[in-house]
Every structure is written in structure tokens, then in C-alpha cells.
Amino acid sequence: MDKDTFANLTSKPSFDQISIQLLQEYYEAYLTPYVFKYDVNLNGHQTIELKFNRDNFCHLLGITKIAEESKNVPERLVRNYKGNRGYDGIKKGWITKKKLNLLHKSRYKDMKRKMVWFYLVHRLLQSPKAIDYKYQVNQIASVDIIFFDEIQKAFIHLGILKKKGKVPNVYVPSTFLVEPITQNNDGKKFIDGQPIISVTRYEKTLAKK
Structural domain tally of the chain? Predict the structure, then answer.
């Protein structure tokens, strides 16, 4: 499977059909080249920008969490599984599904769920619903806004965090969450009770190099 096939899937793939490297290629083709702009009603009307970069990728998939909680990764080496170091590790082929499974089997299961639904991220961004993330759920922190939608019998969420700096209203992705809708789960635990944000306009432009 190539990145374009992955991006245009009509149902989630099996885990065996995809690799971390494939998701990285998708990320580079469909997310990092662009700035995603939204008009929102959040403390009044404002325009926000969402930018994807290398630093966020390992965290979005849960790779960093696997390393942080593994007994087999010394604390000084966790940095090899996050940010640019982790991104390069994927590029070079030494961060793989097999290796991560050996590091932490429970967190690896969480990563598997994220990976098979990751093909929906660019579609979610086209017309998201949004909430102001005021109340922590499941210890999910470092999130200001959650974009979400119900797609293919699951709630897909992208948490974004306001970036500190001189340029106002720039956000970066901070977490990717999936809640399948089942007979016993309505999938809304991250959004129930949170203030709704109205998204009134969406624009995608090429990022400046």
C-alpha cells in the first residue's frame, strides 16, 4: 500500500497492511506541507492556524509514550523516540512495529488503534466539529481544543495545543484519539460536557518554506 491508497481508504486497514513508515509518508504528503486555517467562536470571533511538523509525529501515534513507560528504555534514551530524533529513527528504519511491541505491549495496543485510523486525519480537518477542552478526561492533558467527528462508526479526535510565541493563534497537534462506537460505548467521553466551539470557515494553504 502506498500513501495515496492509504489516504483514500473507505474503511480502516488491517494492522498488517500498514507500517509506521507508510504513515510517515502520508503525514509528509497530506499534513505537513499545509497550514489549516479556521474561523472559530472562542472567546469571540478569531482565526486560528494549525500546523503539523516533524516534532509532533511520534507523540500523535503514541510512540513516545511506549518509550517513556518501557522498562527496557533508559530515561536518557527516551529522547530517541520523540521529536526530530524519533522522526529520523523512523526514516532510518530502526523504529519499527516489531521493536515497539517488545518495549511495551499494552501501550503498543493503543498505538495500533491510532495507526489503523490515522488515514482519516486529513478528512477530519476539512469540516471538523470542535470543543473547548476544559475538563481533563483519562488524564489527557496539553490540549486546548479538540477537533472531532463521527466517521465510520467511530469518533475521531485531534487535540491541538496553542503554541507559545510571538505569532498569535497558531496551534500544533498534540494528541490523536479514537473511540469506536459500540453497543456499550457511544464514543463521546472526550466531548460530553465540554463547551462547543463553532467553526465557521476552513481554508488550507501551502505552508511557507
Answer: 1
User: In terms of residue numbers, what domain contains 123?
Assistant: 18-206
In order, the DSSP letters of 115-174 are HHHGGGHHHHTTS-EEEE--S-STT--S-SEEEEEE-SSEEEEEEEEEPPSSSTTEEEEE
Percent of the chain with pLDDT over 70: 99
Q: Which three cell numbers stand for residue 141?
A: 492533558
Q: Output the average pLDDT for the chain.
A: 94
Q: Give domain status of residue 5, yes or no.
A: no
Q: Is the pLDDT of residue 166 over 90?
A: no
Whether 9 is covered by a domain: the verdict is no
What local confidence, expressed as pLDDT, does residue 44 receive?
86
Question: What ranges make up the beta strands (E) of the chain?
Answer: 34-41, 45-51, 129-132, 145-150, 154-162, 170-180, 196-206
8, with CB counted inside 10 A (0-12, 13-18, 19+), is exposed
Kindly state whether residue 133 falls inside one of the protein's structural domains: yes
57, part of any domain: yes
Contacts of 164 (CB under 8 A, 6+ apart): none
